[in-house]
Specification:
The chain contains five helices and three strands; from the N terminus they run αααβαββα. It is mainly alpha-helical and 169 residues long. β2 and β3 form a beta hairpin.
């Protein structure tokens, strides 16, 4: 009996923590009023939904949140590099582009992870994901640097793939 009550309390506590964390991450600017509102909403939201949540599921949500803090800096860095590259192309009078469609291979097993990879590539300037076919993605690339599958995969998806593999294991 005590174990069941402990499980209910754990689920409720995990739900409160996750909802409050999400509230703080998604609100700006940080003020005492935002924290107060977040606390009330986290407790009320947890009260309404904790029965549908499992402790192991909440641990996975927490793990995903931690991994997003690893993913976001890498994504931001890749975005900055790609923006600078595209800006240099636009500002160059000769427009040194070599557009093309390349095929890359991913080792990601999860379909959701492949979609995240495709979206990450599309959101990076100079690339556009066109199709996902099993473990292959077709990418339009503004400046093709590698035509072979391995080279293009390394250039385009290399920095994202390791993180996404860890996130969606």
């Amino acid at each position: 009996m005590e174990r069941a009550e402990s499980s209910v309390g754990s689920r409720y506590l995990y739900a409160v923590m996750v909802y409050f964390f999400l509230w703080i991450v998604l609100t700006y600017p940080f003020s005492i009023h935002e924290w107060e509102a977040g606390t009330v909403i986290a407790f009320l939201g947890a009260l309404l939904t904790y029965k549908q949540l499992s402790v192991s599921g909440m641990k996975n949500v927490m793990r995903l949140g931690v991994l997003l803090f690893w993913y976001l800096p890498v994504f931001t860095w890749e975005m900055i590099k790609a923006n600078l590259h595209v800006a240099s192309i636009v500002l160059n009078p000769k427009m040194p582009i070599k557009p093309g469609i390349v095929k890359i291979k991913t080792n990601l097993k999860s379909p959701v992870a492949r979609v995240w990879l495709a979206n990450s590539i599309t959101l990076t300037p100079g690339t556009l994901s066109l199709d996902i076919d099993g473990q292959y993605l077709y990418i339009h690339w503004i400046t093709v640097k590698a035509k072979d599958v391995e080279g293009a995969s390394r250039e385009i998806a290399g920095s994202f793939e390791k993180i996404l593999e860890a996130m969606f294991k």
